Amino acid sequence: MSNYRIQGATGEFEVVIGLEVHAQITSNAKLFSGASTAFGSEPNTNVSLIDAAMPGMLPVPNRECIRQAVRTGLAIDAQINRWSRFDRKNYFYADLPQGYQISQLYHPLVGEGSLTVTTDEGDKTIGIERIHVEQDAGKLMHDQHPTMSYVDLNRSGVALMEIVSKPEMTSPEEAGAYVRKLRQLLRYVGSCDGNMEQGSMRADVNVSVRRAGEELGTRTETKNVNSVRFIQAVVEFEAKRQVALIDDGGKVVQETRLFDPDKGVTRSMRSKEDAHDYRYFPDPDLLPLELSEEFVAEAKASLPELPDVKLTRFTNDLGISAYNADVLTADVDTANWFEALLAEGVDAKLAANWVAAELFGALNRLGRDINSSPVTPAQAGELLKLQGDGTLSGSLAKQVFEKMLETGDGAGAIVEREGLKQTSDTGAIEAAAQGVVDANADKVAQYRDGKEALFGFFVGQTMKAMGGKANPKVVNDVLKKILGN
Q1: I need a surface site. Which of 19, 69, 288, 355 has the fewest CB within 10 A?
Q2: How would residue 245 be classed by pLDDT, with cut points 50, 70 and 90?
Q3: Domain check: are 143 and 239 in the same one?
Q4: What's the mean pLDDT in 53-68?
Q5: pLDDT > 90: what percent of the chain?
Q6: Residue 226 within a domain
Q7: Are residues 442 and 472 in the same domain?
């Protein structure tokens, strides 16, 4: 239990949160048809006869969609149900041409699992109740005509995993951490791209409040929240709204609500339906799913190294700092880029520091992400090897990197062309250092009187005299000798 509490007029309240995350399954076709799932297509261009519910059209499950859902279940160490079944969820809406949604209520594909998240209050394991597979509905477009709404069925039939947590989160921070961790995992597994801004991952946020130690309160469900920040805002607003209602002698009503991101508030949409209101029954057009041992084994074998395992390997085996390891494993694209850099044979600690500081700094300045980096892992490897073998000092490596960004040339070519090799010529360094010492007799006296911080001044001036090309270790050794330290 977190320390997050809502202070009401009549006492202190705890908040209890459960999340139902809808994640679009990575596949080039829909759950029951071969229509494309490409984002951004013209309205009603990715619609098969099945998606449009034409008479006589029968659904056929997409094997890849089932496989990806199983892989996701295995990644959260969940029970994989070898026998599952599709149900019809009956309701009538303009963007649902069948008049029902094919889902899994009674026998889901994936059973109980869990996800461990990290917050400021430490690690916490949050239970996941189930993952079931279902088809998405279409979309109503209200801004295309002054008096009519249009229907776009491009999303109709798109495969979704509904990942249902247990009501075990107790603060906005925990809810945010859970969604970020789940998104990270889905992207590593490759079962969902996690693009919340495109609607391929969104959450229904269930919130209730209770006095400490009491039974669970009545919950509300806020639908289709599509960013981590908004999810946390929903939790905070709903918890305070419900506490204020209880303090005023009112009762929280179980209902479905919508979030207004512009105002930061939720508003009532409809009273919450129970399962029986949808008249669920087994879909007569679809046989139960029966998974073989081989199918599940293949799905498990196809899983990549997952983020928590990779994080441990980076810190324990490669000696990378906990902070850098966390940065490098946070996103699968960053992790893959870094792994490609390590494959070039560079020192892991040097590479981690360079990516976290120099590369990310450059990408931020350029407004790019790791996938559009102007420097490839092979080019970065060449640069870091030159730094690692002493050809380049740290400052020279930074200069070369800037020129790589500007020109697209390799580090070796830039070093040769511009004469940027680091020198360890003791004679040249001694001459430069002696010149600096001779020109700063007053500072030499202060240094010898105990002002040791001035040593850095002499190092900097010597490096400057050498055009930044001197080996810093040799500079330090030479100056210690000259200054009598």
Answers
A1: 288
A2: very high
A3: yes
A4: 96
A5: 73
A6: yes
A7: yes
Domain boundary among 296, 322, 350: 296
Same-domain status, 340 and 468: no
Confidence band of 74 (pLDDT split at 50, 70, 90) = very high
Residues 156-165 pLDDT 10s: 999 999 999 9
Average pLDDT, the chain: 91
Contact 191, 250 (CB under 8 A): no
Rg (C-alpha) for the chain, rounded Å, is 30
Is the same domain home to 180 and 316? Answer: no
HEC-encoded secondary structure of 444-484:
HHHHHCCCHHHHHHHHHHHHHHCCCCECHHHHHHHHHHHHC
Say yes or no: 153 and 189 in one domain: yes
pTM over 0.90: no
Q: Which tokens belong to 23? A: 């994640």
Are the beta carbons of 166 and 125 closer than 8 angstroms?
A: no
Regarding whether 461 and 315 lie in a shared domain, the answer is no
Structure tokens at 397: 């490596």
What's the pLDDT at 448? 80
With H, G, I as helix, E, B as strand and everything else as coil, classify residue 318: coil
Looking at the fold, whether 62 and 161 belong to one and the same domain comes out as: yes
Rounded Cα distance, 386 and 382, in Å:
6
- State the Cα–Cα distance between residues 198 and 195, nearest whole angstrom: 5
